[in-house]
From TrEMBL, chain B:
The keyword Cell membrane does not apply. This is Formylmethanofuran dehydrogenase, subunit D. GO terms for molecular function: molybdopterin cofactor binding; oxidoreductase activity. Residues 5-101 form the Molybdopterin dinucleotide-binding domain.
Length: 432, 123
């Protein structure tokens, strides 16, 4: 029987769109409506890892779930300082289990945020952010600024649902009633659809933001005619554009966090927004990538007091980005085993870190094969959250939403897998 | 040619993101985009490859044009190929420099490696 399921959440990006329609027939997803290309490709599904596997003489060999759990537990118990990394593409409930496991084995929990918006979180911790919900922006904003982000390709429905093109309660004209400013180093698809595009040189965000702050603070006279390649005249026009908005919103992306200045760029952007609030209403938000990277930060924060890179080796949570963050731990060879869940560090970390990962025993929990599988010693296939198991995820504005289960599968969910590994860890410890 | 390398998201990279062993994803993330001017200056045409070298490593990528790029800047969709060129220093905040990496770009006859060869290279 064909079943139409409405208001499904898309578990791909931080927009966490909640208006998707999915047709299910005989327990299989047949059609997806309303999702973008990224979301549909995930919901429609593709090649899965079929069975748990362990590496024997260099080759992966199929085994039972029970054996895989036990092998994973052995690796974790034998490690001096294991890393538990990923978490942004699974549920909050899974991370809660992961934290229990890390406490038990004295490991480090880090999320993919550290190589994404981690610096933004550090900036926000330092300065505080004038934030809002996406709904407020949709209903009120008349100026949208995309700074170092490209929603046309990374968050395809963002503009239509929440920002530049959305029609809201006080913004009935949608795109026509709004101004859009894009700041970037290259002319992206998003930039091509903007009212104004400010092209800056790579690594000069800090200078440009500082210049805008000076103009907004009434100190334009002290500025040189040219700031990092941008004319003072253009910067004054941009500052005017910002000040004359009734409700402005800055969305910022990895253009700020991945380049020179890192969290200081974000810190400066937060200051710009708080200064703009002396003139008008302005808010700022990070464009979060994975659908639950926001939730991963929330769960860690309420469990340990810290939003990422939490080391439980001392018996109490310890946090020091640059020391306890995944990249640093790997490049310093300060971890000796890794549990990788819902992420692919082999693709996403610098080569030097991947080489370190390849030297240690790796447990991978994921529905899909990816380059990390090429290094994994234990591979445990899991059910896909939001499609095959339910749970909780946080949208990029911090709103928590309930993910639904659409179809039945034989794969266990991440919560179940982590619980089983934890049970094995406890049992093996008792036996010794 | 000296250039500044920026990595970032693209639609095809995103669509293949959860199916990383698929040709769609691999083709997209093993491509290096240049401005039209730089593409012409290097004498490139369809199907030609580039060797990129940074202080941290090197990789062979397919060459493509992105009209939105200024001269002297190359763009690689984020993924294993871009990360062959990035360093591990996080400047004390956990984040390596994925954007703004200085690279040397030269046309090459070498092949783009298959994902397995690339990942297991030197092992
Ligand atoms: S914008 Fe993001 S959450 Fe919405 S459908 Fe596309 S991938 Fe899914």
């Amino acid at each position: 029987m064909r079943l139409q399921i409405e208001d499904v959440l898309c578990t791909f990006c931080g927009c966490l769109c909640d208006d998707i329609k999915v047709e299910v027939d005989e327990g299989r997803i047949e059609k997806v409506r309303g999702a973008c290309r990224l979301g549909s490709s995930k919901i429609m599904g593709h090649n899965r890892i079929k069975s748990p596997m362990i590496r024997v003489n260099g080759e992966l060999k199929e085994i039972s779930y029970e054996e895989a759990y036990r092998r994973a537990a052995e690796i974790l118990i034998n490690a001096r300082h294991p890393l538990l990394y990923g978490w942004a593409s699974t549920t909050c409930e899974a991370l809660k289990k992961g934290i229990l496991l890390a406490e038990e084995i004295g490991g480090v929990v880090d999320t993919t945020a550290t190589v994404c918006h981690g610096p933004s979180i550090i900036g926000i911790e330092e300065k505080g952010a004038v934030g809002s919900t996406l709904g407020q922006i949709k209903n009120r904003a008349d100026l949208i600024v995309f700074w170092g982000c490209n929603p046309s390709e990374a968050h395809p429905r963002h503009t239509l649902r929440y920002s530049s093109n959305a029609c809201g309660r006080f913004t009935p004209d949608g795109r026509k009633g709004r101004k859009v400013l894009v700041v970037d180093v290259r002319e992206t698809r998003t930039a091509r659809n903007a009212d104004r595009f400010l092209r800056i040189q790579p690594g000069t965000d800090y200078e440009i933001i500082s210049a805008l702050r000076m103009i907004i603070g009434g100190k334009a006279d002290s500025l040189p005619e040219d700031v990092a390649g941008v004319s003072k005249k253009e910067l004054i026009e941009i500052a005017e554009m910002m000040k004359s908005a009734k409700f402005g919103a800055i969305f910022f992306g990895l253009g700020l966090t991945h380049s020179r200045g890192r969290y200081k760029n974000v810190d400066n952007a937060l200051s710009l927004v708080s200064e703009l609030n002396s003139h008008t209403k302005f808010v700022i938000m990070a464009m979060r990538g994975h659908y639950n990277v926001t939730g991963a930060g929330q769960v860690l924060a309420w469990s340990s007091g810290y939003p990422m890179a939490v080391d439980y080796a001392r018996g109490a949570p310890y946090y020091n980005p640059g020391e306890t963050s995944c990249c640093d731990l790997l490049s310093r060879r300060d971890v000796d085993a890794a549990l990788i869940i819902a992420s692919d560090p082999a693709s996403n970390l610098p080569r030097g870190c991947v080489e370190a990962l390849a030297e240690m025993p790796v447990i991978q929990i994921d529905p899909f094969e990816n380059p990390t599988t090429l290094f994994a010693d234990v591979v445990i296939p899991s059910a896909i959250a939001g499609i095959e198991v339910e749970g909780t995820a946080y949208r990029m504005d911090g709103l928590s939403l309930r993910l639904r289960k659409l179809v039945d599968v034989e794969y266990p969910g991440d919560v179940e897998i982590l619980q089983a590994i934890l049970d094995n860890v406890r049992r093996l410890r008792d036996d010794n | 040619m000296k250039a500044v390398m920026i990595s970032g998201r693209t639609l095809a990279q995103g669509a293949g993101c959860e199916d990383k062993m698929s040709p769609l994803y691999i083709n997209e993330v093993s491509c290096c985009y240049l401005s039209e001017e730089d593409y012409r200056a290097l004498g490139l045409s369809d199907g030609m490859n580039l060797l990129l070298t940074s202080p941290h490593g090197s990789a062979v990528l397919r060459a493509g044009v992105d009209r939105g790029l200024p001269q002297g800047m190359v763009f690689i969709p984020m993924g294993p190929w871009a990360n062959m060129l990035t360093g591990t220093d996080t400047k004390g905040c956990g984040m390596p420099g994925f954007k703004g990496v200085e690279v040397e770009v030269t046309p090459t006859d070498e092949k783009v490696l298959d994902i397995r060869e690339l990942m297991l290279r030197g092992r």
